[in-house]
Amino acid sequence: MIIEEQCGIIYEVEMFKDGGKVYIRIPFNAKELFNKPKGNIYVKGTINTISYRNKLISKGNGVQIMLINKKMQKMLGYDDTNMKVKLTVTEDNNISEEEVIQTLIEDSNVDVLSAISTRRSIREYTEQNITDEELNTILNAGFCAPSAKNKRPCNFIVVKNKTLLMELGKTNINGKMIINANCCIVVCGDKILEGIKELLIADCAASTQNMLLAAHGLGIGAVWCGILQNSDWKKQISRQFKLPEGIIPIAIIALGYPNEIKIVEKRFDASKVHKEIW
Ligand SMILES: Cc1cc2nc3c(=O)[nH]c(=O)nc-3n(C[C@H](O)[C@H](O)[C@H](O)COP(=O)(O)O)c2cc1C
Fold first, then answer.
1. What is the pLDDT of residue 109?
2. Residue with the nearest Cα to atom 27 of ligand 1?
3. Can you tell me the mean pLDDT for 159-174?
């Protein structure tokens, strides 16, 4: 049912649950209406008079849906049953990179403790592409990591090129999943910014772990590949990416939508917890 109003069209639509997440189906073909056959479509409007900005998810055959994050669900009083709401929707052409990252952060329904305890290394990937917005959200997590004296010596190289991924993966048996990854991030440390090697490695490790968790929060699979400092692989990476003097590769994160299901193990180990003294 459509109710026309002066401020635009108000659609009556249903919020529905699918795979634990809550969505609204856009009641028209947004690709056609906004004349955008390719690329991401960002929209803005209101749901029951509450303003939103969002990105549409294409489900094929002209169907687009949008994810309703937990904050919005709460504001709408969503109670886990299919609920009718009033929706206005227009294209949002002025969304900045930071706003896109913020939208993805808010859309991620995973709380930090669940993300930490359900993350596993994922080494098999589907063909689904990771979007630039998702990549930026992952990189943002890397930049948000703590670093000694807040020197932030980590730099990241994003690699999507299939030939480069193949070259990286084929020369290290432990890194062969990179060949079929959708992309990877080479985590590099700046020795000039952080002169103490142990701290440089610790800073890059903190960034790497943050990015693994961010990927997991977005439903993207990832695995950390260590780079031994006196290995041929390290030399190859430095050469392949033309790393300047003083920039050392410390880890590679292979990324892709998961094509394997990993059991979440309980790992709390009381025998390794020592109280007041070993
Ligand atoms: C410093 C470090 C280096 C790692 N290097 C590799 C690697 O070269 N190849 C790989 O497949 N996994 C690598 N991993 C991932 C570990 O194998 C994985 O974290 C571990 O088996 C536990 O599994 P989980 O991540 O699913 O919890 C590395 C992890 C860390 C922390």
1. 66
2. 120
3. 97
Query: Among the atoms of ligand 1, which is closest to the Cα of residue 208?
Result: 31
Pocket of ligand 1 (CB under 6 A): 120-121, 123, 174-175, 223-226
Q: How much is the average pLDDT of 77-90?
A: 91
> Which CATH number, 3.30.465.10, 3.40.50.970, 3.40.710.10, 3.40.109.10, labels domain 112-256?
3.40.109.10
List pLDDT tens digits, range 60-69: 888 999 989 8
pLDDT tens per residue across span 31-41: 999 998 888 89
Domain with residues 2-96, CATH architecture: Beta Barrel (2.40)
Indicate where the chain has its CATH 2.40.30.100 domain(s). 2-96
Q: Exposure of 77 by Cβ count < 10 A (0-12 exposed, 13-18 middle, 19+ buried)? A: exposed
Inter-residue contact 27 to 66 (CB < 8 Å): no
Distance CA 136, CA 9 (A): 34
| Bridge partner residues of 154 (DSSP) | 189
The CA-atom distances, in angstroms, between 157 and each of 39, 112, 154, 183, 217 are 24, 26, 10, 10, 21
pTM, 2 dp: 0.79
As a whole number, mean pLDDT of residues 204-209 equals 98
